[in-house]
Specification:
With 42 residues, the chain is an alpha+beta fold. It has helices at residues 23-26, 32-40, and strands at 12-15, 18-22. A hairpin with a 2-residue loop joins strand 1 (12-15) and strand 2.
Length: 42
């Protein structure tokens, strides 16, 4: 896991260069369980 700081309110989660979540696209900060579920489903 690598945390890459950015500005502008972006929060994006990628796994092996595949975006699995984007706060910029949804407008909502995800909960931990949601991110874990998306990672496990890969």
């Amino acid at each position: 896991m690598e945390l890459v700081p950015v500005s502008g309110g972006a929060f994006e989660v990628t796994v092996d260069d595949q975006k699995i979540y984007s706060k910029l696209e949804t407008g909502v900060f995800p909960n931990t369980e949601e991110i874990i579920s998306k990672i496990e489903s890969l």
